[in-house]
Amino acid sequence: xxxxxxxxxxxxxxxxxxxxxxxxxxxxxxxxxxxxxxxxxxxxxxxxxxxxxxxxxxxxxxxxxxxxxxxxxxxxxxxxxxxxxxxxxxxxxxxxxxxxxxxxxxxxxxxxxxxxxxxxxxxxxxxxxxxxxxxxxxxxxxxxxxxxxxxxxxxxxxxxxxxxxxxxxxxxxxxxxxxxxxxxxxxxxxxxxxxxxxxxxxxxxxxxxxxxxxxxxxxxxxxxxxxxxxxxxxxxxxxxxxxxxxxxxxxxxxxxxxxxxxxxx
Length: 265
Hints:
Radius of gyration: 18 Å
CATH architecture: Alpha-Beta Barrel
Number of domains: 1
Order of helices and strands: HHHHEHHEHEHEHEHE
CATH superfamily: Homocysteine-binding-like domain
CATH class: Alpha Beta
Strand order of the largest sheet: 1-2-3-4-5-6
CATH topology: TIM Barrel
Structural class: alpha/beta
């Protein structure tokens, strides 16, 4: 039975539980991360996949102990055009693969026949959107494909396109993930999770009904929402999506809307 078949079979019996945030977990472990682990590039969390493996493992172990079925890799921005901002775009494949390998190890450690654990290869929107002319399709495609290849080689079970803000960006990522899977001769299922702002649309202006229509032809195992708002605000969008989307729905909202207190988020 394929990973996709396993997941769809399980979802019919019970919801699958995804893990939580990465950034806040790293903030809580700030004292455990050696200064040299940042290599002078503080804020580039993906570097920690190779420089602070023990810290990363502690985060994944905590989520697995709490019962999460789906564990996301620390590869949200592991593409050349994002890492170029830190001068390390050439390390995209390395950091993507390392990020998946850490989660693969921990998922294998915690998996049981009754509760298998799955590695979600996190692929974020990056810092440039094609619909706004920030980046050319081909450049984005190659960056996403390189990341996807690293995730596959590191043992990813599922691609998670998360915090998506632009329908064209989603299409580029879908095509890149498909191309990477074909190149490696594997079939990696894909989840898509978009961000709906308080105004009720994605950053580009797309609402829940429209994104469902756009993605209906694609072979994805779920569509849903993450980030952007808290559970109360996203509830109505989940209801709307449930009326027009016939496949599984995912939801992993913020605990609440971010607040600035004394200069700290």
